[in-house]
Amino acid sequence: MAAAANAPDLRSASLEELGVLVERMGEKPFRARQLFRWIHHKGAGSMEEMTDLPRPFRERLSRDTRLTTLAVDAVQRSSDGTRKYRLRTEDGKFIEAVYMPEEPGPDAFDPEADDEDEPGRKRARRTLCVSTQVGCAMGCGFCMTATMGLVRNLTAGEIADQVYRVNADLRDVPGVDPQRPLTNLVYMGMGEPLHNYVNVKRSLDLLLHPEGANFSHRHVTVSTSGLVPNIQRLGEETRVKLAVSLNATTDEQRARLMPVDKKWNIAALIDACRKFPMKYGRRITFEYVLLKDVNDTDADARRLADLLAGLPAKVNLIPYNENPGLEFGDPGAERVQAFRRILEGRGFAAMVRKNRGRDISAACGQLAVAGQKEAPIRLGARA
Ligand code: SF4
After folding, report:
1. What are the residue numbers of the active site?
2. Are 136 and 285 contained in the same domain?
3. Is residue 143 located within the same domain as residue 15?
4. Which of 87, 115, 173, 267 has CB atoms 3.0–4.6 Å from 70's, for a disulfide?
5. How is residue 379 annotated by DSSP?
6. Which residues are near ligand 1 (CB < 6 Å)?
7. Which has more confidence, 266 or 117?
8. Is the same domain home to 168 and 269?
9. Could you tell me the pTM of the whole model?
10. Are 296 and 339 in contact (CB under 8 A)?
11. Are the CB atoms for 258 and 322 separated by under 8 Å?
12. Nearest-CA neighbor of 187 among 156, 212, 210, 213?
């Protein structure tokens, strides 16, 4: 008999919570660790896979608990190695996760490319961008996900399971280490991570756990559009890195693009960044989507440098990936380089993020939005 939808979800449970559950079931304490490793180290997709657990225990687990597992609904593959996954939740919602492989190099997309622990970044990175919500409430004007509104928060298990489903898909890919298909995580997919703080924090605890997927905090970045109170909380309660999606240099500009600015303006946001604990070698990445004739002038670049003065910051410039149905344009390579030169002239590390997967629906939310509308997509398109 299948467990009820409201049965406890093993995928979202901490090792300690599994310990309590196992004890209640009259099992030996070491079973909790075994279970946790199956779920988070091996990324098991079902209880049947947990072959070294006694059958009666597995049957009882199947009856009384759930193991949230996402279904891979569609994969788009780009010629640059990017893979975009549309994943279906158990209640039939679509989310997306984007895999971005990068060889070492100065222009690689990597929020912490210049880590103190890895000067010059000698190794390839295989990064997954994960979603934290179905849809998003933040309403950013340049974002496809915003057009969905917020449908619901993802659970910690659903956030973590994006990693496990993608790991399973990547293990056979040439050049990918099957023991560690993904090396880095960025919480920059659908949704505002700090608007789903509790589940995001729990998912970080699961994904960074040494008995689980064991990601290093140095290789995990959480991005926010500017939910100021939770920036402080993230800084106090975790050791992961922070990215801020800034995208404008005046409140007038930013409030038009990002309604969150009306609640927490640029001054409040930068103040929260200045108070963010910078121990553990952290520095803040500022994401700046360059929109043609909106926020891409030399004056914008100079104001951006003024705003960030004195902060341990780096800037990721992201030329806008044009979306059908949204009114913004790509500023072009020349303007992007001019913007970058001004920042570098003021001493900032500024990198231009390559637009990954130009030949697939790689802009945030594009694939999942298509899924919610049941639009046909190209499956497994190889360029
Ligand atoms: S850019 Fe991010 S925060 Fe803004 S609406 Fe899109 S998903 Fe939400």
Report:
1. 96, 364
2. yes
3. no
4. 87
5. T
6. 136, 138-140, 143, 145-146, 190-192, 225, 364
7. 266
8. yes
9. 0.90
10. yes
11. no
12. 156
